[in-house]
């Protein structure tokens, strides 16, 4: 119609179909004579099959104030985004009945009882230990064109039964099969172990301990003694140059003074107040409240020393994910080595594989020499004597076995080297200060600390070790 402004409506749908926009294309000189009706807009939306989440207030606004929206896209419809399902989880009802000690208690005569600091969290046969909460399926969404968007289900979780526990038929609950103490071992398996208690020191009066369960020592573990447990080990005193090996976790209340003797090994976590001149290895975490001094400490995930003192000086510390302390080193620039980014056992395994391969290569060389001699005899005489024939068969079989072993070791070596190259995110965190003298290694990247850093986090970004200030 003559005198009526020309315009064009363009409707665009986002790639995920959760939003639609409308664009009013009109020349500036036509805006004053523009007549735009709600019906025109709804008709355009209908052409694009948009029927969900239409913003009626925007439609009214567009008709009333076209100048405001001219030649500029505005959202005209919004769909409903799907809601991802909640990840599955595990509840541990037995923890509700566990009461930990609140520290040393003062006796009537004024002395302090340091031996009964911890109450042992025992469970009873038949007690519910773990309950699986299934992952949520989420809520479906709807596109602006009315299509259903399937939600993403949450990640499922698996509860892993270990020793002396039973599951229900649906595998959603774990119950204790005996009276004892809960302990988590390799791959987070849940176990119940009987408890063996020593009401004093592990000394010549007690001897070495090897127990299929959890061991609680209410005194100290002295030089040269061994304590082995398939569950946890709890020491309410200190540990000297002894050997402790727990498939679960180890807790030492008063610290470790090893004088470069013995070895503390836990499949899960090691928790103590201080570590001095010791060799400590944990599959998961090493958590220290005061200090780590001149020790070799390895952890599959983290080494944490960030208490009120929280200082690490000297030694070699290796962790798969993080090493954190309040203070690293001292003003004397004592050499301290920090390695993160790869599980320490991978480095050790690679060294062991390389040693084993050298032995296999040497045995293969000797076997090939023997077979070569047999072939020379055969070429000269046309046949082998019975004893040489038996030796040839034996060498041939030996070579087949060595070849198979060699292929297996080389394949594992390749896998380990790949893991060493592709280390996951790792960090070293100094919550107060890091002094010079520190050598830090992230996988294959090495950095020497030559000046003080205050409240600093060290990470790898774009193939280089970089720093960020901790708040």
Automatic annotation (TrEMBL):
Signal peptide: none annotated. Residues 10-187 form the Flagellar Assembly Protein A N-terminal region domain. InterPro entries: FapA, FapA_b_solenoid, FapA_N. This is Flagellar Assembly Protein A N-terminal region domain-containing protein. It comes from Brevibacillus centrosporus.
